[in-house]
Amino acid sequence: MLVVDLNKIHLPKEKLLKEQxxxxxxxxxxxxxxxxxxxxxFRQIIIYLPGYLLLLGGALIIYMNAPNSFKMVVxxxxxxxxxxxxxxxRLAPYVSLFVVLMSTIFFGKIFYQSxxxxxxxxxxxxxxxxxxxxxxxxxxxxxxxxxxxxLFSKRQIQIDDKDFNMISDNDEIxxxxxxxxxxxxxxxxxxxxxxxx
Length: 197
Hints:
46% of the residues lie in helices and 23% in strands. With 197 residues, the chain is α+β, with helices and mostly antiparallel strands. The protein is elongated and about 80 Å long.
């Protein structure tokens, strides 16, 4: 196993809280973890791709038939004279281009921030093992038990009550995360798996 100096690792914007971490190591992703990451990429694409294609289709409809698309979307009873129809035909390419550019920028940002880091993790097949001492938070009234994790984006994770009681205040936990996307792949205490939600 390779022990990594926290000052030398380059992480995405959502970084680790270095002051809570004892040390880190790198390890190869297991086949089931790679499959989990592939499933996450597939789910993200299934969520966002139809919306992007729908907007591109809308832009094409506007470009191909601006007056009728205006009647379909804005006003079903509109009676457009020749001057208004000609103006719509002149504006159609600009409106279509605006819709294409804005939707490409929006979905490109989503791809860059959420899907691309996961693809990098799958390609490099490396995960980080982060060892730290967690803080426990019991909400017994709601039968929920939380453990702190050293991520800026997510400070706590819900765990089973049995695992919660197994962890003492001085125990060190190993959090397995994907290196680029910082997805939590597992929690362990002395090689015993901690169930989380």
